[in-house]
Automatic annotation (TrEMBL):
<feature type="binding site">
    <location>
        <position position="90"/>
    </location>
    <ligand>
        <name>Zn(2+)</name>
    </ligand>
</feature>
<feature type="binding site">
    <location>
        <position position="146"/>
    </location>
    <ligand>
        <name>Zn(2+)</name>
    </ligand>
</feature>
<feature type="binding site">
    <location>
        <position position="92"/>
    </location>
    <ligand>
        <name>Zn(2+)</name>
    </ligand>
</feature>
<dbReference type="GO" id="GO:0004089">
    <property type="term" value="F:carbonate dehydratase activity"/>
</dbReference>
<feature type="binding site">
    <location>
        <position position="149"/>
    </location>
    <ligand>
        <name>Zn(2+)</name>
    </ligand>
</feature>
<comment type="function">
    <text>Reversible hydration of carbon dioxide.</text>
</comment>
<protein>
    <recommendedName>
        <fullName>Carbonic anhydrase</fullName>
        <ecNumber>4.2.1.1</ecNumber>
    </recommendedName>
</protein>
<dbReference type="GO" id="GO:0008270">
    <property type="term" value="F:zinc ion binding"/>
</dbReference>
<comment type="similarity">
    <text>Belongs to the beta-class carbonic anhydrase family.</text>
</comment>
<dbReference type="Pfam" id="PF00484">
    <property type="entry name" value="Pro_CA"/>
</dbReference>
<dbReference type="InterPro" id="IPR036874">
    <property type="entry name" value="Carbonic_anhydrase_sf"/>
</dbReference>
<keyword id="KW-0479">Metal-binding</keyword>
<feature type="region of interest" description="Disordered">
    <location>
        <begin position="247"/>
        <end position="275"/>
    </location>
</feature>
<keyword id="KW-0456">Lyase</keyword>
<keyword id="KW-0862">Zinc</keyword>
<dbReference type="InterPro" id="IPR001765">
    <property type="entry name" value="Carbonic_anhydrase"/>
</dbReference>
Length: 275
């Protein structure tokens, strides 16, 4: 076993397709690689096999290894990591945290991922690890929800269709976590505007998980001066809004309005930079 899996083409026939993939994954425009690859596969009327997908990853990795920018970053981080952020977000493939905060750098973000950005024991222990074993510890923890979240939608649908007992059997931890904000927002807003209710549930869930972090690490946050925020990512616009949960530094005690103003300024800066 071991090395064979990464180096051998699965079959002669598959090799032909892999040759096509070579063209695609050799594209220097990284962001287009995956979507072009999938389009190509569709064009040939194929579903990629596991081995073909592994092959595409090998080529992606080759690009990464040869990119001098990342070679420098590997060099800078090879003796350890000092990320400033711990970000808990949904496993949804559209929630690519380093991309959406313009930080595609090695060592920038300590990431924790789970469906519905639910924090179970493993997630909490991951945060504990980062706080206690990274020197200096990251100074900001964000739990970020997002619009159009599949986990939230499944929970919402199961309650509306009274099928939550079935879902509870299949996904007990996720459902237990999201159930309360779902019920609360259905009671508050009804079921008339589904998108709005789903977004409210996601936001409440992110807040609830961020409050859990605050509760569990209370004194540790104070000791190391670590702030906790909830975040909400809009899949359509790309916008992330933040809500303060705790910030031990009084001079950072920004109100919601101040945060919004800061976000507005950042937008203005970036749009004037684009011109
Ligand atoms: Zn999600």
């Amino acid at each position: 076993m071991g090395s064979g899996i990464t180096q051998q083409a699965p079959s002669q026939q598959a090799n032909v397709t892999i040759t096509n993939q070579h063209k695609v994954v050799s594209n220097p425009v990284h962001g287009l690689v995956h979507s072009q690859y999938m389009k190509n596969m569709k064009k040939y009327g194929e579903q990629p096999s596991g081995a073909q997908l592994v092959q595409s990853l090998i080529h992606g990795n080759e690009h990464y290894r040869k990119n001098e920018l990342y070679a420098d970053q590997r060099d800078q981080t090879k003796s350890g990591q000092t990320p400033s952020f711990i970000i808990v977000s949904c496993s949804d493939s559209r929630c690519s945290v380093p991309l959406l905060f313009n930080r595609p750098h090695l060592g920038a973000i300590f990431e924790i991922k789970s469906a519905g950005n639910c924090l179970d024991a493993t997630g909490i222990e991951s945060i504990k690890y980062a706080i206690e074993h990274i020197e200096p510890p990251p100074k900001l923890i964000v739990v970020m929800g997002h619009t159009k979240c599949g986990a939230v939608t499944a929970c919402y649908n199961s309650i509306c269709q009274e099928k939550h007992h079935k879902l509870r059997m299949e996904f007990p931890s996720i459902l237990n976590t999201i159930m309360e904000p779902t019920r609360h927002n259905i009671e508050k807003f009804g079921t008339g505007n589904k998108d709005k209710v789903l977004a409210e549930i996601s936001e409440d869930n992110a807040k609830k998980q961020a409050q859990k972090v605050q509760f569990v690490f209370d004194e540790v946050l104070e000791k190391y001066g670590i702030s906790v925020y909830a975040g909400m990512y809009d899949i359509d616009t790309g916008d992330v809004k933040f809500l303060k949960i705790t910030d031990p530094d009084p001079k950072n005690d920004m109100t919601k309005q101040e945060l919004e103003e800061m976000a507005k300024e950042a937008k203005q800066e970036s749009s004037s930079g684009e011109k």
